[in-house]
Write a structure and sequence with these properties.
single chain; Rossmann fold; GTP-binding; GTPase activity; Small_GTP-bd; P-loop_NTPase; GTP binding
């Protein structure tokens, strides 16, 4: 049963982990939620998600956050399924493998997909270079990663799903971005309208609810079961 069925939180936030297959998205999310590293590679089929409850303090107020961390398949044949989840996600962890140049070069394509399908042309994104523990196998330098992030005005962090280095920090960085956007939108309705465009104001209304119904969570889970064998 989903943790979100117990509605004792202030916000439900849905984050998507995106990137080519094999960059370590599944291991990264397991490390964040369970504090464990799964060394055996199992390619995600379609989409799956992990959950975690966290506390977040901002502007003197403490929020109870329920995170749903959606793990998407990187293979091309699943793109039509995973893009269907973009619009309901509030933040994106865009990952590449520091030991795989192709996954780094594909970041531009992933960003184009995001701009087409996300709730906004300028969604909250953290660029993450994974597997920084494999220093001897690294082919993408810190400078290259930072330069790409600067080009698209994204925060950049390097992490290791294996050792846990910067895994928590990457999620917290994304959470901070999303919370700042939400707080600004609540205090400034005009900013919310401009942020998402006039035709998309209903999306921010959904995102700013103080809770989400258990039925909505169940519908998401049922959809996944009907679409894939994960």
């Amino acid at each position: 049963m989903s943790l979100a069925n117990n509605i004792d939180y202030d916000y439900l936030m849905k984050f998507l982990a995106l990137g080519d297959t094999g960059v370590g998205k599944t291991s990264f999310l397991y490390q964040y939620t369970d504090g464990k590293f799964h060394s055996q590679f199992i390619s995600t089929v379609g989409i799956d998600f992990r959950e975690k409850r966290v506390n977040y303090t901002s502007r003197g107020r403490n929020y109870r956050i329920h995170l749903q961390l959606w793990d998407t398949a990187g293979q091309e044949r699943f793109r039509s399924l995973t893009t269907a989840f973009y619009r309901d996600a509030m933040g994106f962890l865009l990952m590449f493998d520091l030991t795989n140049e192709r996954s780094f070069l594909e970041i531009t394509n992933w960003l184009e997909q995001l701009r087409m399908h996300a709730y906004s042309e300028n969604p909250d994104i953290v660029l993450c270079g994974n597997k920084c523990d494999l220093e001897a196998a690294r082919v993408i330098s810190i400078e290259q990663g930072q330069a790409l992030a600067n080009r698209y005005q994204l925060p950049y962090i390097e992490a290791s799903a294996c050792t846990g280095l910067n895994v928590k920090q990457a999620i917290e960085l994304l959470l901070g971005q999303v919370m700042e956007r939400m707080e600004n939108s609540m205090n400034n309705p005009e900013l919310a309208r401009l942020m998402l465009g006039g035709s998309h104001t209903s999306i921010i209304d959904r995102h700013l609810r103080m809770s989400i119904s258990a039925e909505e969570v169940k519908n998401n889970e049922d959809f996944i079961k009907n679409q894939c064998n994960c």
